[in-house]
Design goal:
Length: about 375
């Protein structure tokens, strides 16, 4: 029997009404929480170089990934990929899954996070707190295939942050993270940053930053910092998009075993490879100097940013550097803030702590 046209119209209207309400809810969250603080890092004024951290830990789900999750949901809703009752599935190292679980709960949707078995227990608890279910895998490289399989089994939607991160965010503005940084820098003594320093998990943040500065005609440069066991640095250096790494990153949220589709190498001006122990040393040093407890990816960012400050000082240049405080350190009490965990990992932070002490007293990098 052919369905009555009026029945089809009513069904379509109901679907559209649900999507409209879902988009309203996601946008309402942005209206409440889109902006975050820009913190000044303590450097001597006479150095002539200022360093700032964009504190993304103040989002409702506690990390930079809140912005990405919001953009991914809006992108999927506007593309007609998510309907009422659909299961949302994501491959993640933890923080994106926390944020997507939050938005799925707001929309009354089931959420499944496909995450490595090494994900911190604090992140797993947060995913479950927001109503998500965790599907742990032993091999991080399988998260993509497992996610697609679960989406097929449930008739749900695989969000696929690693493909869509660079296109889901409006890089021209609309209060994205780049626009927010430049607005907040407007009254500083060096308002246009010399360097913007970010890590790469999907590559979406570096893509947003790089595109925005070009679109606005700014002369800021983009530096991407990369941890051990990540494919991005070598993929960028060789321009080999197929480059892969056999091991997985120990710095949660950044570093990938392959060069992800959202990573845009041609808008990255420089990359710095950061040892994992250096990331932890910088993360802990931030807490000592400022009282802000952050995660390992923030340490990676900070190590690269401080190295650039030292280079600017050595060259006699003034200016500003901006990086990100990606998430709070409470998620890593059993890992990066645990001396026992570091010992099990074979991480010796002492040489890198010495580098930081020397930098703070002399501005020199060694």
């Amino acid at each position: 029997m052919t369905p009555d046209t009026n029945d089809v119209d009513r069904f379509s209207a109901k679907k559209r009404a649900w999507v409209d309400e879902a988009i309203r809810k996601v946008n309402a969250d942005a209206n409440r929480s889109a902006d975050t603080h820009l913190l000044a890092y303590p450097l001597p004024t006479e150095w002539g170089v200022d360093l700032y951290l964009k504190d993304e830990s103040t989002h409702p789900t506690g990390s930079l990934k809140h912005r990405l999750a919001r953009s991914l949901f809006l992108y999927a809703l506007c593309n007609g990929w998510i309907e009422e009752g659909a299961t949302v599935i994501e491959a993640s190292s933890g923080s994106t899954a926390v944020s997507e679980a939050y938005f799925a709960k707001q929309l009354g949707l089931p959420f499944v996070a496909v995450i490595p078995g090494t994900t911190s227990p604090e992140k797993i608890e947060l995913i479950e707190f927001h109503g998500g279910r965790c599907h742990l895998v032993d091999d991080p490289s399988t998260v993509y295939d497992v996610s697609r399989s679960l989406a097929a089994q449930t008739g749900g939607h695989f969000m696929d942050q690693f493909t869509y991160a660079e296109r889901a965010t409006d890089w021209r503005g609309n209060n994205n993270i780049a626009e927010s940084v430049f607005e907040q820098m407007a009254l500083e003594r060096h308002p246009i940053p010399t360097w913007l320093v970010v890590g790469a998990g999907t590559g979406g943040t570096s893509a947003t930053m790089g595109r925005y500065v070009r679109y606005q005609g700014h002369h800021s440069k983009i530096c991407v910092v990369d941890p051990e066991n990540s494919a991005f640095f070598e993929g960028w250096r060789t321009r080999d998009a197929s480059y892969t790494q056999a091991c997985s990153s120990r710095i949660e949220g950044i570093g990938r075993p392959r060069v992800e589709a959202s990573f845009m190498p041609d808008i990255v001006d420089r990359m710095i490879k950061v040892p994992d122990a250096a990331s932890v040393a910088a993360m802990r040093d931030l807490h000592r100097l400022t009282g802000h407890k952050a995660g390992g990816s923030t340490g990676t960012n900070l190590w690269g940013a401080l190295r650039l400050v030292a280079e600017m000082r050595a060259e006699g240049r003034t200016g500003s550097v901006v990086t990100l405080l990606c998430d709070g350190g409470e998620r890593y009490a059993h890992s990066y803030y645990s001396d026992e965990w570091l010992a099990r990992q074979g991480m010796d932070v002492a040489p890198y702590e010495a580098t930081l002490r020397h930098f703070h007293s002399t501005s020199e990098w060694r």
